[in-house]
């Protein structure tokens, strides 16, 4: 028996060194065995030997060309039935004639299949070894040439033992060879997997030989062979279809989560390569008239190839016929042969990525990793199906890019909006930019009233064009609101920043001609210059400072002002909050308010978000947006989290004693994840109050987790293992990367309130909310909408099948006593899933 395993990934230098050594060793052993066999061989006349050898050679050819094929993941196992003619040949012919016929048949097969010389030499050596071992063992058992003894029981025994020992020697040789080439499966597994079919084939051959010699035997053998072929083909087709369906389902799930990163697309190509058992998979993306992007994945991972020209004959054939399957032995077109040579391939399939009425690119696979055969029509159908999934994924990425562009850009001017500008500021800070200029024309309302809104929009577009041209095409420029624009300036000295801002203000503040009417704006500007000791300041703070400076300029009838701390009491207040925080915790001034969360499907109150508040004796009720950022820099954020957890878990324990199962979500800072004993603190708090971990949810922002992903992700996975639920807050802003989202062990995503509140008036926001809901459900996540303040928004979210909502429509954040009063007055108690528990449902 011969078992051929599809070649795995190995270092090329290892293959070059091992193949000649193994082949030479087996050749030496084979020559010695053949010398021993030939000393006791039976002879035939030349004509009889030629006829018998030709018939036997044809039998060996049939066994090699039509093997029993089994594909398992990344390897193709081909069980040759060459033991069948080997058994019959040893019973009827001299051993040397059997060996010559087997060797000639193998050489014809390997040469026609264009195997490498290493494979050819190794497999021909295996054939010599296998035939010599079988003949020698058989002669030793029978004591002489087999054909001279006739079909005796001793001859049957000798042939059976000889062929099985030969199969064992072949299997051991194959297993050891693969071990020399690199990591391989255990030798015992290779041997067992080889010997079981070999034994079955030897027994079948001996039985078939005896049946053939009986009256009516040929007819019976032929009928039995037909039945076996039909059963095998039916069973093999069933297994193949089942495996293809499983792989297709896996591929479909993988396509859902693919992002625009090259790593994701390389993983997808690796999946295509594995599913079709191909050596190489390539993706050609069309960004214009030529194919300008090519990704190629081969046995050793990503490969470097230049983009394929749009006039490539294989691609042209795929466009013309809907697909293309070309190999060196199936085409005589010189251009196609040249294209195959350029790809260093002999068998290629190409399918267009169809999207509507145009092709977005092509998906291509080259050369089956098994050296036994070409790609089939079924493989081409499978590739067409995979290409359909890839084309759909490309369309989805373009849709998401379009939605994101709509969310981050102003409809009238095409410039960035406030949200897009804040993202640009945060990104620009990493590349040496940080000062922000805010300029207001202070003329839009007059133009709208006097000339109409269309002229006002024209004015805005002209002002935006002036700023872009003056600032430079690569510098972020945004329309914040009305006729107020923002520009991200270099993080240079204050004098340089002021000079640049003065130039931009003069350009945008010049006169405009609207239908022959000169409009002279009263432009004023404010600059927030970032000093070295303020590196942690984010975009919203910079915009706030720039706005304060601009308002100061307007109040003083000046054209430009630079932000100064004296313009407000922000930093004095911030300093007070930092220094008084620990004392406030000890005095119980840090309290928790609760905002309920509602499940839309059955109006059940499923939990609440814990929102920390500071009851400051001087400033009154201080929101976390004001003091959390301040205490993060001092390392006190861990004290705040432990304090909040203590309050929340104690309250949850009290609610449980009254039969109420209410989950609570607590916001988590990235600095909490970096704390050394964070997990231990969470475990101790849960154990102290005996709270079910599944009732506790930690809300995190994706951008905060990705600040230190190597440390944050393991901690989040530990929390998930503990049973604590994880939620991505403010989804749709910050990173919002699908590649990162797949890595997070999360249970839900929360749509940012800016999209929810704008979706009733902005189609872009509505499309983004719908896309996020569909994306979350496709990934098996709960989707929560924040900032629901109107019944219309609630109704739209219900039609989208959003899972839960939270916002002022239900309730503002409430202190504990007011929250419990809210529950008592607005809900009814319904028996819960556990004994002596109940859930709360809103009254109709």
UniProtKB/TrEMBL annotation:
<dbReference type="InterPro" id="IPR003018">
    <property type="entry name" value="GAF"/>
</dbReference>
<feature type="transmembrane region" description="Helical">
    <location>
        <begin position="49"/>
        <end position="66"/>
    </location>
</feature>
<feature type="transmembrane region" description="Helical">
    <location>
        <begin position="86"/>
        <end position="112"/>
    </location>
</feature>
<protein>
    <submittedName>
        <fullName>GGDEF domain-containing protein</fullName>
    </submittedName>
</protein>
<dbReference type="Pfam" id="PF00990">
    <property type="entry name" value="GGDEF"/>
</dbReference>
<dbReference type="InterPro" id="IPR043128">
    <property type="entry name" value="Rev_trsase/Diguanyl_cyclase"/>
</dbReference>
<keyword id="KW-0472">Membrane</keyword>
<dbReference type="GO" id="GO:0071111">
    <property type="term" value="F:cyclic-guanylate-specific phosphodiesterase activity"/>
</dbReference>
<keyword id="KW-1133">Transmembrane helix</keyword>
<feature type="transmembrane region" description="Helical">
    <location>
        <begin position="154"/>
        <end position="178"/>
    </location>
</feature>
<dbReference type="Pfam" id="PF00563">
    <property type="entry name" value="EAL"/>
</dbReference>
<dbReference type="InterPro" id="IPR035919">
    <property type="entry name" value="EAL_sf"/>
</dbReference>
<keyword id="KW-0812">Transmembrane</keyword>
<feature type="domain" description="EAL">
    <location>
        <begin position="574"/>
        <end position="827"/>
    </location>
</feature>
<feature type="transmembrane region" description="Helical">
    <location>
        <begin position="190"/>
        <end position="209"/>
    </location>
</feature>
<dbReference type="InterPro" id="IPR000160">
    <property type="entry name" value="GGDEF_dom"/>
</dbReference>
<dbReference type="InterPro" id="IPR029016">
    <property type="entry name" value="GAF-like_dom_sf"/>
</dbReference>
<dbReference type="Pfam" id="PF13492">
    <property type="entry name" value="GAF_3"/>
</dbReference>
<dbReference type="InterPro" id="IPR001633">
    <property type="entry name" value="EAL_dom"/>
</dbReference>
<feature type="transmembrane region" description="Helical">
    <location>
        <begin position="124"/>
        <end position="142"/>
    </location>
</feature>
<feature type="transmembrane region" description="Helical">
    <location>
        <begin position="17"/>
        <end position="37"/>
    </location>
</feature>
<dbReference type="InterPro" id="IPR029787">
    <property type="entry name" value="Nucleotide_cyclase"/>
</dbReference>
<dbReference type="InterPro" id="IPR050706">
    <property type="entry name" value="Cyclic-di-GMP_PDE-like"/>
</dbReference>
<feature type="domain" description="GGDEF">
    <location>
        <begin position="432"/>
        <end position="565"/>
    </location>
</feature>
């Amino acid at each position: 028996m011969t078992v051929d395993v599809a070649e795995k990934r190995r270092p090329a230098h290892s293959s070059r060194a091992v193949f000649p050594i193994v082949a030479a060793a087996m050749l030496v052993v084979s020559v010695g065995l053949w010398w021993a066999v030939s000393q006791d061989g039976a002879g035939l006349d030349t004509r009889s030997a030629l006829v018998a050898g030709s018939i036997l050679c044809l039998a060996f050819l049939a066994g090699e060309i039509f093997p029993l094929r089994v594909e398992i993941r990344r390897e193709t196992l081909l069980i040759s039935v060459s033991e069948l003619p080997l058994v019959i040949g040893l019973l009827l012919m001299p051993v040397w004639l059997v060996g010559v016929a087997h060797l000639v048949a193998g050489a014809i097969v390997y040469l026609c299949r264009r195997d490498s010389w290493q494979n050819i030499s190794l497999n021909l050596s295996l054939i010599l070894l296998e035939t010599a071992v079988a003949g020698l063992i058989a002669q030793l058992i029978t004591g002489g040439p087999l054909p001279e003894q006739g079909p005796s029981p001793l001859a049957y025994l000798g042939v059976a033992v000889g062929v099985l020992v030969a199969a064992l020697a072949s299997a051991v040789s194959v297993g050891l060879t693969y071990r020399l080439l690199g990591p391989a499966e255990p030798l015992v597994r290779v041997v067992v997997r080889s010997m079981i079919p070999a034994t079955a084939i030897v027994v079948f051959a001996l039985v078939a030989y005896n049946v053939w010699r009986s009256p009516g035997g040929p007819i019976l053998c032929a009928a039995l062979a037909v039945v076996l072929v039909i059963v095998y083909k039916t069973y093999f087709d069933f297994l193949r279809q089942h495996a293809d369906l499983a792989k297709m389902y896996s591929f479909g799930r993988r396509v859902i989560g693919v992002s625009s990163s090259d790593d994701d697309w390389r993983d997808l190509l690796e999946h295509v390569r594995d599913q079709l058992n191909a050596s190489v998979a390539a993706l050609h993306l069309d960004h214009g008239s030529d194919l300008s992007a090519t990704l190629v994945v081969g046995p050793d991972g990503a490969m470097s190839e230049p983009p394929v020209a749009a006039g490539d004959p294989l691609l042209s054939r795929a466009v013309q016929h809907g697909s293309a399957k070309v190999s060196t032995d199936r085409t005589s077109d010189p251009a196609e042969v040249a294209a195959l040579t350029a790809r260093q391939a002999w068998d290629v399939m190409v399918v267009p990525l169809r999207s509507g009425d145009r092709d977005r690119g092509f998906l291509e696979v080259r050369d089956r990793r098994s050296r036994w055969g070409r790609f089939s029509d079924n493989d081409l159908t499978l590739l067409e199906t995979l290409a359909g999934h890839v084309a759909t994924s490309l369309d989805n990425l373009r849709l998401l890019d379009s939605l994101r562009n709509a969310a981050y850009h102003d409809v009238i001017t095409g410039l960035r909006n406030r949200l897009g500008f804040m993202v640009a500021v945060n990104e620009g800070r990493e590349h040496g930019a940080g000062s922000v200029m805010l300029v207001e024309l202070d003329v839009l309302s007059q133009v709208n009233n006097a000339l109409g809104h269309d002229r006002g929009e024209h004015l805005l577009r002209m002002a935006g064009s002036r700023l872009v041209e003056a600032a430079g095409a690569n510098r972020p420029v945004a329309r914040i609101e009305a006729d107020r624009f923002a520009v991200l300036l270099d993080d240079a000295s204050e004098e340089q920043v002021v000079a640049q801002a003065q130039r931009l203000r003069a350009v945008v503040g010049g006169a405009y001609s609207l239908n022959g009417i000169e409009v002279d704006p009263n432009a004023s500007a404010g600059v927030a210059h970032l000093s070295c000791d303020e590196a942690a300041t984010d975009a919203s703070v910079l915009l706030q400072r720039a706005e304060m400076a601009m308002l100061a300029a307007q109040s003083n009838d000046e054209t430009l002002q630079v932000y100064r701390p004296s313009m407000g009491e922000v930093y004095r207040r911030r300093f007070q909050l930092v220094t008084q925080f620990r004392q406030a915790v000890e005095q119980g001034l840090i309290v928790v308010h609760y905002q309920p969360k509602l499940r839309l499907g059955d109006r059940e109150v499923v939990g609440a978000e814990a929102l920390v508040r500071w009851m400051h004796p001087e400033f009154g009720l201080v929101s976390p947006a004001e003091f959390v950022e301040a205490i993060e820099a001092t390392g006190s954020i861990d004290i705040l989290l432990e304090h909040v957890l203590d309050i929340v878990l104690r309250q949850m324990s009290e609610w449980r004693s009254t039969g109420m199962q209410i989950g609570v979500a607590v916001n988590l800072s990235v600095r909490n994840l970096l704390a050394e004993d964070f997990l231990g603190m969470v475990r101790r708090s849960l154990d102290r109050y005996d709270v079910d971990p599944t009732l506790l949810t930690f809300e995190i922002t994706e951008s905060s987790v990705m600040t230190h992903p190597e440390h944050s992700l393991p901690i989040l996975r530990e929390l998930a293992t503990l049973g604590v639920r994880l939620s991505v807050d403010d989804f749709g802003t910050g990173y919002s990367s699908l590649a990162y989202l797949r890595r997070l062990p999360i249970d839900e995503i929360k749509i940012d309130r800016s999209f929810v509140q704008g979706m009733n008036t902005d189609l872009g926001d509505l499309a983004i909310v719908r896309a996020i809901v569909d994306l979350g459900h496709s990934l098996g996540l709960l989707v929560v909408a924040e900032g629901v303040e109107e019944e219309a928004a609630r109704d739209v979210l219900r039609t989208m099948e959003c899972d839960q909502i939270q916002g002022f429509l239900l309730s503002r954040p409430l202190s504990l006593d007011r929250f419990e009063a809210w529950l008592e007055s607005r809900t009814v108690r319904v028996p819960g899933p556990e004994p002596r528990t109940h859930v709360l449902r809103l009254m109709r």
